Amino acid sequence: MNLTNYHSHCSFCDGKAPMEDFVRSAIAAGFTAYGVSSHAPLPFFSKWTLEKDCLSAYLSELEFLKSKYADQIELYTGLEIDYLTEEHNPSSPFFQKLPLDYRIGSVHMVYTDEGKLLDIDLDSEDFKEKLNECHGDLKQIVKLYFEASMRMVELGGFDFIAHPDKIALNASYCEAGIDEKSWYKKMREDLLALIAEKELIMEINTKAFSAKSRFFPAQKHFALIKEMGIRVVVNSDAHYPEFVNSGRAEALQALKAIGVQTVCELHGGKWQELAIY
Predict the structure, then answer these.
(1) Quick one: DSSP state of residue 71?
(2) What does residue 220 show for φ and ψ, rounded to 5 degrees?
(3) Residue 124 vs residues 42, 157, 201, 241: alpha-carbon distances, Å
(4) Global pTM value
(5) For 69-114, what is each residue's pLDDT tens digit?
(6) Element (H or E) spanning 56, and its range?
(7) What SS3 class is residue 204?
(8) What pairing do the DSSP bridges indicate for beta strands 109-111 and 201-205?
(9) Rounded mean pLDDT of the chain?
């Protein structure tokens, strides 16, 4: 199996264990490469992101671990960077100047028309409650999510886009079947088409597989991803060391079943397309 992972968190952000615990778990599982990608600092306080004042310590610890485990695994330094505005996104000069091995582009929050910030990645009940506080316009929130994702792709500055269509989980909880409505499908397909046009790498995120038996994007879209020729990387988005390999085998099997032959992996500091095995 292709044992790599480039999307993971640790106690520097909302991960549930120190960075080294994740590295040790990856080594124990036989991984050849592993990347730590804490949530990048936001322009305001947040409990789930890396604090700006801790960036230096974060980078230093990864350099130390790279040296300590150099003969056992390839370690890489990443950040998961949110698109918020034209000023705060993966292409922003601040993030581009950081000494990172790779950058992940993500959308977790959107600004409503009233200027309120809504987190689309909350637990489903919390999302529904927050949505009601925003007057319950689910279609508008979905639209804002895809608009933000499209703009992030246009601006670039990242190595791969994380968990596209992540909003589908909470949107479907609030309104069953919403992600199969024609207007929703068009926005999802427009995003995938732009990713393909820009020749970007897209993540198949397996974080929710053990609990909810689903990937992001959902498995039912894998055939379209193949048809569009989008390159993919499979990541577990681990927040606990024991989940560094969660859902990987199932995702690779599902990709191979519909004819995808390769996945992207970072080795020797370069992204490569390697056969699924």
Answers:
(1) T
(2) -65, -10
(3) 23, 30, 28, 24
(4) 0.97
(5) 999 999 999 999 999 999 999 999 999 999 999 999 999 999 998 8
(6) helix 55-68
(7) strand
(8) unpaired
(9) 97
